[in-house]
Amino acid sequence: MNSLRKFRITNNAPTIVWFAVISFAALILGYITDGESTILMFSEGHNTPGSILTGLRFFTHVLGHSDWNHYISNMTLFLLLGPMLEEKYGRDKILEIIVITALVSGLVNYFLFPYTILCGASGIVFAFVMLTSFTSFKEGEIPVTVIIVAVIWIGREIVSGFTEIDSISNLSHIIGGAVGAIIGYKVNIRRKASNYGDK
User: CATH no. for residue 167?
Assistant: First the structure.
């Protein structure tokens, strides 16, 4: 009994946890409203109603999911990779990645694919995947993991974009991966430079 008292629940990644919780609340709200709240508040596209919310939806579309399976498929990797990345880079950097990925993918979808409804955290998941592959980055080197991840994940999305017709935005995946790769490269370059300067 005493040994059980030594264990306590800790929130090691508040940004990741809150994102997952808010996304879950948005999903439940979507079920309650028969999808109307998801289209109105948590999706991005010219054919979504309420143009006054367009600016907000550039950011909130990553919180919306079409159904339970969509949510689970995104949150599985999100909750697996997110806490490790938040502990390594800090909540401010993780929040920055989420916001940048949401905004860039939302803007690109709005201007290039105006009648495609975009929702879900898959772009952020791809950003996390690419960011994770940079954890062992060294200046002047390209980790083989980065190449493998790029070929498997990004390459698959490019091929799927030309060969499959579905409701999943392949472009948001590619954009998310690009954001994660760029930020991962810059962050780790700065860290290496900082560590070198301390010596």
Answer: 1.20.1540.10
